[in-house]
Design goal:
Radius of gyration: 18 Å
Structural class: alpha+beta
Distance between the termini: 52 Å
Strand order of the largest sheet: 1-2-3
Order of helices and strands: HEEEHHH
Largest sheet: 3 strands, antiparallel
Length: about 110
């Protein structure tokens, strides 16, 4: 798939960033998707068939590239905590089951 016209990075740059993100377990977007926006995301495994990611996003007016890098540790920690929670979800549950549990409120565990 070709990159959109005017995209600020080359295919080689993106592939290099993908390799780096896989090693660090986080990726940064600074003025890439939309000018004036930025974000940092970290991935986690939900189960053996599903991976997901969590992100922190904002306006570049409030987050410098340096500040975004400082938040990398927080994004990775969020992903680690979400992976722990996701591991507790029975793999046979449907989204409808999860919704019914959520509407029933919290349950106490002994």
């Amino acid at each position: 798939v070709p990159l959109p016209q005017g995209y600020p990075k080359s295919e080689a740059q993106l592939l290099d960033e993908f390799r780096t993100a896989r090693i660090r377990n986080f990726a940064i977007d600074y003025n890439e998707c939309d000018f004036g926006t930025c974000g940092i995301a970290a991935s986690f495994k939900v189960n053996d068939r599903l991976a997901a990611a969590c992100s922190i996003n904002g306006a570049t007016a409030y987050f410098s590239e340096e500040r975004l890098m400082e938040m990398a540790e927080l994004a990775v920690k969020m992903a680690e905590e979400l992976a722990i929670v996701a591991a507790r979800i029975p793999t046979q549950m449907s989204f409808r089951d999860l919704g019914q549990q959520a509407s029933a409120g919290p349950t106490r565990h002994s």
